[in-house]
């Protein structure tokens, strides 16, 4: 029996080639699109699931009292030891401090320098919390000695080649000398933590004082199985009260975040060293998009199937007359759909090699081709197959099989007109989705342009950043800076604690009559900061060029946000004393316009640059403003000067503008992905519209013929055929616009700087949807209207 | 074999009621060949559909093989239908996507006949209908007469006791029409009961008896010949 149905299905497939191919194309494109989306979601959801203790690992997060809507992923370095000591439910706690608070390290191995982005300083307990697989070294307690370090296999190959690294020494940033005590297997790329090298925290400069103030230490802990997270949370909470004696210094509270939530539920968590951050919103959007595309393709199928149902009805009627039962007929239609769905799944699978590549390249993901052959993909395809068969096959199956043989064999079987109404409804649903997508595409694009062109308040282009955190003393660089300052293409050289976009120190701005302090960013800098970054001075001047040896003052260059808070105009602010936790003698020497160093999703922060003798923070970066006309030559000269003047440090540089671009990268990637796949969705729904119009035209050939014999012009006929669809499209626009506007308002509310949705743009987008539909439909209409009426009347 | 008494069929639409069959009564004996005639719209097809268990009636009694079936539901009627009744339609009603062979095989599939037996039965029937050489063609590749022969083959392959034909020659020229009539006659001679709706006096003469209808009612019955013997006089009378 089933072979008989498959046979019919196959012949149906072949006999109506256009419709079958449209369906096949639509479904397989949809499936090809969904496979990478599925793999992406699967990978995002699999994060950190490989760790044996995954259910008992937590990160300690910090919530500053001043801004209780913020969550930080790092805490003071006193937290981990206190937790171990005071809370019996905690088996282990370990700090993970990224070298230089996130600036790359310069490693010296033998005579060679290497740049290292992923060096972490941590406690030996880390290896009790996360499982690392050691392939060299005894692995039991690899960080036993204070100067011990372990590296992963890639790092071992990079630094030492094929030689065994055990016992070899590595000098970090011209400071501590570490001895390699183990090599561990690279952590999988679905692990949130990603160290290439882990050194004992005790060798870090930052371990010398243990305090409850500076919160820069990402801290993980392992709970004993069976402990009540609520109670543990309370106990963690209580630590601040116990250890911070002065209540006014208790500026934060702590809370534990389960490891399983770190990847997808930390988009708002600041100050973490984890760079592989996902976002549940993204995952949901992507999932929704995938579902939408499949749905649109299924609607295509249903539409074409119901459109053909008049022909099918007769066939079912005959079969029923000959003794087919209802069940057998239902089966027959499912067989029809199942065959097509199967072919689509196979084609979609083949196409997915391309779509996966595309997805990887636009989204910057690294989904492996081999994942296509994994069990989850296979299961996913099976599920899609069954789902599409049920979804798309049900309507014809149930409608036609439910009617009696006699009804079905009547010349015009309408199922009470239900199929027509349904078909129209489906077209409207489908095209409403397309309208929403078109409007979304336009608005996302506009917003991206807006963000790209936004005046940042500084000029990041042509600014070369050189990492100098490996240089022990800024004085060692004097030779180098003097040399490059002479180069014709170098305009300014500024020393900074951290470049824009890298975060800076957080301090508090006190105001006598204000209820609370203002959290602001402070950055140690020198006079050149204003020209190098292109800051716009509103009043006063830049930081002093030279400080007298005995000068104990702190010179402050504030942005407008700061003086606004103090209630001063920029002019009034000059020469005023400010209390920013930088000592008694801090004076404002200049005020610059506001600038935005973070993504435009976040508001402008109050920010000061300061210069002082014995500044609490050292310089970590050189900002070199260059003329980019002869970039390669200039870069060569700067690099060779660096190699000559600072031989013990790796030349680690990047460009400020490209670094800032990476800040928006996640958004951009998301937007590009959404854009591309939305276009595909629109394409798929146009396929459906095209098929449907082809069908209508075919069905109406006789009517068209008669009308033409009666004197109708080609134009009036194609208009008649097109209008039928355009009415539906207009209805879709009416439905789609409010939905689109609502959704896009939601999306835009994520941005601090956002465009206003212009009705003109929405109208234009909707109009272009109409145009796309018109073009799709009119091909068939025009074709049908051109046909010779004699031929069309003869048929039947 | 069939006995209907006061059979009624009323079509109700929103505005009007059409009495398609109005208290009809007649009997058809096993082995008989009955023709039903009457003007367009008088209810012939409706009657045939009820006799063929494709439709239900709104009143009266319908005894099929000694069983009252007026109250049968769709499912029971379908069971009875597929075992006992074959249909031939004016518009052939072959399935375009199936070959001649497969079209004829279809009723056997629905009657759960084993594949090996099916092959024998299908080929035997196609042989008898002289379309064996076309068995791998699709319906659209055949002439009208050939298509109707396939439809007859499909109706008889299952060896039904009763064949219902609704204007089987309506779409055929006289040559092809006669071929189909010959076929039906020989089936009848082999013992199959046949009820045929026709507009053609010529075709009606192949039958034993003509039932004439008007506005859903039986008006006359002419017996052309008795079962198993053909009275020449009757034939002439109606010529
Ligand atoms: N599904 C239906 N709904 C309503 N009325 C119907 C329906 N089918 C048939 N009729 C009406 O019942 C009457 C009998 O129709 P029927 O098809 O049986 O006529 P017929 O004798 O077969 O005509 P013809 O020789 O043209 O085939 C007609 O008046 C017709 O309009
Ligand atoms: Mg009729």
In short:
The complex is a heterodimer of chains A (796) and B (239). Chain A has 796 residues and is of the alpha+beta class.
Helix-strand blueprint:
The complex is a heterodimer of chains A (796) and B (239).
Chain A: H1 2-15, H2 17-45, E1 57-64, E2 71-72, E3 75-76, H3 79-86, E4 90-98, E5 105-109, E6 112-116, E7 119-122, H4 126-129, E8 134-136, E9 148-152, H5 153-160, E10 169-172, E11 177-184, E12 197-200, E13 215-223, H6 229-243, E14 252-258, H7 259-262, E15 269-270, H8 280-307, H9 309-321, H10 326-363, H11 375-402, H12 405-409, H13 418-453, E16 463-467, H14 478-485, E17 490-496, E18 505-509, E19 518-524, H15 529-533, E20 537-540, E21 554-559, H16 560-566, H17 570-573, E22 586-592, E23 607-612, E24 621-626, H18 631-645, E25 653-655, H19 656-663, H20 665-699, H21 701-709, H22 714-748, H23 759-786, H24 789-794
Parallel strand pairs in A: 2-15, 7-12, 9-11, 19-23, 21-22
Antiparallel strand pairs in A: 1-13, 1-14, 3-13, 4-7, 4-13, 5-6, 5-10, 8-11, 9-12, 10-11, 16-24, 16-25, 17-24, 18-19, 20-22, 21-23
Helix pairs in contact in A: 1-2, 1-10, 2-8, 2-10, 2-11, 2-20, 8-11, 8-13, 8-20, 10-11, 13-20, 13-22, 13-23, 14-18, 20-23, 22-23
Chain B: E1 2-12, E2 17-28, E3 33-37, H1 44-51, E4 59-64, E5 67-68, H2 74-84, E6 85-89, H3 100-110, H4 115-128, H5 144-156, E7 162-166, H6 174-189, E8 193-197, H7 201-204, E9 209-214, E10 217-223, H8 232-238
Parallel strand pairs in B: 3-8, 3-9, 6-7, 7-8
Antiparallel strand pairs in B: 1-2, 1-4, 4-5, 9-10
């Amino acid at each position: 029996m089933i072979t008989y149905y498959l046979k019919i299905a196959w012949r149906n497939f072949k006999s109506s080639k256009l419709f079958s191919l449209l369906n096949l194309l639509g479904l397989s494109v949809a499936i090809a699109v969904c496979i990478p989306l599925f793999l992406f979601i699967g990978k995002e959801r699999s994060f950190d699931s490989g760790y044996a203790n995954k259910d008992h690992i937590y990160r300690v997060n910090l919530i500053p009292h001043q801004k209780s809507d913020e969550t930080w992923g790092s805490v003071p370095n006193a937290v981990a030891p206190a937790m171990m000591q005071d809370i019996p439910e905690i088996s282990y706690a370990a700090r993970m401090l990224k070298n230089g608070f996130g600036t790359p390290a310069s490693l010296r191995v033998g005579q060679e320098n290497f740049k290292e982005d992923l060096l972490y300083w941590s406690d030996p307990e880390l290896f009790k919390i996360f499982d690392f697989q050691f392939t060299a070294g005894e692995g039991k307690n690899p960080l036993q000695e204070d100067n011990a370090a372990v590296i992963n296999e890639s790092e071992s190959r990079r630094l030492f080649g094929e030689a065994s690294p055990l016992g070899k020494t590595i000098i970090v940033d011209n400071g501590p000398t570490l001895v390699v005590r183990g090599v561990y297997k690279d952590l999988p790329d679905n692990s949130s933590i990603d160290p290439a090298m882990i050194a004992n925290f005790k060798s870090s400069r930052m371990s010398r004082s243990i305090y409850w103030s500076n919160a820069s230490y990402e801290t993980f802990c392992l709970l004993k199985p069976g402990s009540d997270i609520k109670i543990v949370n309370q106990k963690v909470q209580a630590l601040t009260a116990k250890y911070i004696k002065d209540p006014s210094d208790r500026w934060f509270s702590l809370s534990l975040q389960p490891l399983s939530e770190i990847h997808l539920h930390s988009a708002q968590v600041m100050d973490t060293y984890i760079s592989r951050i996902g976002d549940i919103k993204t995952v949901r959007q992507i999932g929704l998009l995938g579902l939408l595309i499949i749905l649109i393709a299924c609607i295509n199928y249903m539409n074409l199937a119901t459109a053909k149902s008049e022909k099918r009805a007769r066939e079912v009627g005959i079969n029923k007359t000959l003794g087919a039962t209802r069940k057998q007929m239902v089966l027959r239609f499912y067989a029809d759909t199942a065959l097509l769905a199967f072919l689509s799944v196979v084609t979609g699978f083949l196409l997915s090699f391309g779509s996966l590549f595309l997805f990887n390249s636009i989204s910057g993901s690294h989904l492996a081709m081999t994942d296509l052959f994994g069990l989850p993909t296979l299961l996913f395809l099976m599920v899609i197959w069954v789902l599409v068969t049920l979804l798309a096959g049900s309507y014809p199956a149930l409608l036609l099989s439910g009617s009696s043989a006699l009804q079905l064999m009547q010349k015009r079987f309408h199922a009470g007109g239900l199929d027509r109404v349904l078909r129209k409804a489906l077209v409207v649903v489908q095209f409403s989705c397309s309208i929403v997508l078109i409007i979304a595409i336009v608005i996302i694009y506009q917003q991206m342009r807006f963000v790209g062109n936004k005046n940042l308040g500084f000029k990041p282009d042509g600014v070369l950043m050189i990492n100098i955190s490996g240089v022990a003393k800024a004085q060692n660089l004097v030779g180098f800076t003097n040399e490059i300052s002479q180069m014709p293409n170098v305009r300014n050289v500024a020393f900074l604690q951290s470049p824009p976009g890298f975060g800076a120190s957080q301090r508090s701005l006190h105001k006598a009559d204000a209820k609370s302090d203002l959290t602001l960013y402070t950055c140690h800098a020198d006079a050149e900061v204003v020209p190098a970054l292109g800051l716009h001075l509103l009043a006063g001047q830049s930081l002093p060029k030279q400080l007298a040896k005995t000068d104990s003052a702190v010179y402050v260059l504030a942005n407008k946000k700061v003086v606004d808070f103090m209630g001063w105009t920029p002019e009034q602010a000059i020469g005023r004393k400010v209390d920013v936790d930088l000592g008694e003698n801090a004076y404002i020497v200049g005020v610059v316009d506001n600038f935005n160093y973070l993504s435009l999703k976040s508001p402008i922060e109050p920010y000061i640059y300061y210069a002082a003798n014995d500044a609490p923070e050292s310089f970590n970066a050189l900002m070199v403003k260059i003329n980019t006309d002869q970039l390669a030559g200039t870069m060569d000269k700067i690099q060779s000067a660096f190699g000559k003047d600072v031989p013990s440090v790796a030349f680690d540089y990047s460009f400020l503008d490209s670094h800032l671009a990476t800040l928006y990268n996640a958004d951009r990637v998301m937007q590009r992905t959404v854009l591309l796949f939305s276009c595909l969705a629109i394409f798929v729904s146009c396929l459906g519209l095209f098929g449907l119009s082809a069908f209508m035209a075919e069905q109406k050939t006789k009517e068209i013929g008669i009308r033409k014999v009666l004197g109708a012009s080609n134009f009036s006929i194609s208009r008649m055929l097109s209008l039928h669809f355009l009415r539906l499209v207009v209805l879709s626009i009416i439905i789609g616009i409010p939905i689109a506007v609502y959704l896009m308002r939601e999306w835009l509310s994520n941005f601090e700087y956002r465009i206003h949705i212009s009705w003109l743009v929405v109208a234009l987008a909707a109009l272009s949807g109409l145009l796309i539909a018109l073009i799709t439909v009119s091909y068939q209409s025009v074709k049908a209207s051109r046909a010779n009426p004699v031929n069309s009347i003869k048929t039947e | 074999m069939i006995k209907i008494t006061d059979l009624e069929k009323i079509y109700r639409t929103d505005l009007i009621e059409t009495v398609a069959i109005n208290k009809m009564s007649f009997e058809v004996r096993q082995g008989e060949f009955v023709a039903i005639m009457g003007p367009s719209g008088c209810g012939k097809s409706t009657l045939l559909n009820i006799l063929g268990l494709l439709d239900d009636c709104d009143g009266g009694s319908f005894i099929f093989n000694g069983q009252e079936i007026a109250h049968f539901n769709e499912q029971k009627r379908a069971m009875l239908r597929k075992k006992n009744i074959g249909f031939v339609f004016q518009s052939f009603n072959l399935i375009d996507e199936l070959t001649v062979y497969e079209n004829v095989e279809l009723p056997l599939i629905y009657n759960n006949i084993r594949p090996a037996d099916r092959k024998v039965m299908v080929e035997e029937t196609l042989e008898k209908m002289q379309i064996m050489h076309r068995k791998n063609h699709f319906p659209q590749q055949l002439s009208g007469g050939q298509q109707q022969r396939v439809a007859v083959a499909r109706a008889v392959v299952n060896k039904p006791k009763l064949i219902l034909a609704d204007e089987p020659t309506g779409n055929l020229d006289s040559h092809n029409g006669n071929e189909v009539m010959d076929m039906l006659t020989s089936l009848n001679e082999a013992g199959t009961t046949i009820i045929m709706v026709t507009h053609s006096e010529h075709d009606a003469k192949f039958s034993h008896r003509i039932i004439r209808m008007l506005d859903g009612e039986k008006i006359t019955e002419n017996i052309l010949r008795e079962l198993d013997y053909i009275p020449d006089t009757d034939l002439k009378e109606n010529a």
